[in-house]
Design a protein that fits this description.
This protein is an alpha/beta fold. The chain is built from 9 helices and 7 strands.
């Protein structure tokens, strides 16, 4: 398995979609988490117990409530990750895709161990900001806040430290026309 990662707005999903179009099996970790939220009654109950009834909906987890919480409170993010990431790792291993697209591999050491190598999608801060505001519809404040949370991941040495012993390939995606992969 190869991990596809990068900062918010860099174009991980774009790379994943290109690979899917070429017939590769690409697992989107964000979508997998949403499936787990929907399909795992045990996970939903555990999240509701940890964060309150407002964290749950009739068909899964209140994603807006959870997103607002974890982007404002690092301890809440870590508690959620401790609940979700073991289930996600198990899911990924069972699916056995060619590629796994995820933003926060470094928070899931068990999943990092499963990867042969990593592709890090990179784009300028301006490009990423414009994508978040213009394509995803985030407010200027929300886009800046989310980007600030990942500011430390802005150079190749940092990425190499996050995935020691793994081969890392950097893919530039400033204009949406990636080089041949």
């Amino acid at each position: 398995m190869i991990g596809i990662t990068g900062q918010i707005g860099a174009g991980k999903s774009f790379v994943g979609q290109m690979l899917r179009e070429r017939g590769f099996k690409v697992l989107d970790a964000d979508l997998a988490v949403h499936e787990l939220y929907r399909d795992s009654a045990d996970l939903r109950a555990t999240i509701a117990k940890e964060f309150g009834a407002e964290a749950q909906t009739a068909d899964g987890v209140n994603r807006k409530f959870i997103a607002d919480l974890i982007f404002k409170d690092e301890s809440a993010r870590k508690r959620l990750e401790a609940l979700v990431y073991p289930a996600l790792t198990e899911y990924v291993v069972l699916q056995n895709p060619d590629y796994v697209e995820a933003a926060l591999f470094e928070n899931v050491p068990q999943m990092v161990q499963q990867m042969e190598s990593f592709w890090v999608v990179v784009a300028s801060e301006e490009t990423r900001f414009n994508r978040l505001v213009n394509q995803r519809g985030l407010s200027v404040e929300d886009a800046r806040r989310r980007m600030d949370l990942q500011r430390a991941k802005n150079d190749s040495e940092t990425w190499k430290k996050l995935f020691p012993g793994k081969e890392i390939k950097f893919i530039e995606n400033n204009d949406g026309s990636l080089p041949k992969i």
